[in-house]
Amino acid sequence: MTLPHHVAVDQQPTVEGETGYVLRGGSEGAVRLRLLARAKWPTTRVLLGRAGLRRGMRCLDVGCGAGDVTFEMARVVGDEGEVIGIDADAAVLEAARREAERRGARVRFRRGDAVGIDEPPIYDLVFARFVLTHMNSPEAALAGMMAAARPGGMIVIEDIDFEGHVCFPPSHAFERYVQLYREVVRRRGGDPEIGRRLFQLMRAAGAEDVQVDVTQPAYAVGDGKLAAQVTMEHIREAVVAAGLASHAEVDAIVAGLDAYARDPGTVMSLPRIFQVWGQRPAT
């Protein structure tokens, strides 16, 4: 799966508000998000169940992207509930709306910035996955999530500790990919290891009964094994613009990751992923 490095207008990295987003957005970004969602949904499903997602709830999916988790949440809450997805990328939201129409899903999508969430305090559960890592001000984004939850409502977050990647046997392409991703996110003001800080951030935001878990899916086959090469391709523009690598080096890394993923004798993980959930105080 070798990817071209040309970039259409709607594929440029999305930068709105206080965000260090380094990945391509738009329609091509939606393809990456769906691949990642397929790989990641089993552990996200368990998290949402532990946090109490159930029929009849009103939920907000912050930084919803193409809506893959939004649709799954809507399936759980049923017709008695309501799920709204917000994202800053208008093009990826349009892809989400088309998918909702195709599915006949009772989901609403609207444009919204994760840093400046403007929602009333009505949600039983507010969720964000892989969002705070891109924020220059994750505290502000978390405060907005807390404010959108009703008193007693749940705030649920998944985010990465990118340093925690694993592959075996060792791969230079994989190691270089991890190095470049971490560096370019830092240069944009994000935190590629924010996962390890989430527990303290949630407590500092005022959440009660904060819980934490760590997951790390690993793959010998399947979508998860493609995540590294697709992500490397989608940070190409940000990496080259920062002077961290040339297009030629990115081509070589993507090709190396592709060959590694096709080898049935290799194992590749996603980043270490922290799952944190807590409750807005009831009073």
- Give the termini separation: 52 Å
Text of the CATH class: Alpha Beta
Number of beta-strand segments:
10
- Unreliably modeled segments: 1-18
Top keywords for this entry?
single chain; 283 residues; alpha/beta; disordered N terminus
Brief summary:
The protein has nine helices and ten strands. By secondary structure, the chain is α/β, with parallel strands linked by helices. The strands form two sheets. It has a seven-stranded mixed β-sheet with strand order 3-2-1-4-5-10-7, with helices on both faces. A three-stranded antiparallel β-sheet has the order 6-9-8, with no helix packed on it.
Q: What does this entry look like structurally?
A:
With 283 residues, the protein is of the alpha/beta class. The chain has a single domain, classed as Vaccinia Virus protein VP39 (Rossmann fold), CATH 3.40.50.150. Helix content is 40%, strand content 21%. It has nine helices and ten strands. It has helices spanning 26-50, 68-77, 90-103, 138-148, 172-187, 198-204, 227-234, 236-241, 247-262, and strands spanning 58-62, 82-87, 107-111, 123-129, 149-161, 167-168, 208-215, 218-219, 267-269, 272-279. The strands form two sheets. It has a seven-stranded mixed sheet, with helices on both faces. Strands 6-9-8 form a three-stranded antiparallel sheet, with no helix packed on it. Helix 3 links the parallel strand 2 and strand 3 (107-111). Helix 1 (26-50) crosses helix 3 (90-103), helix 1 crosses helix 7 (227-234) and helix 5 crosses helix 9. The radius of gyration is 18 Å and the shape is globular.
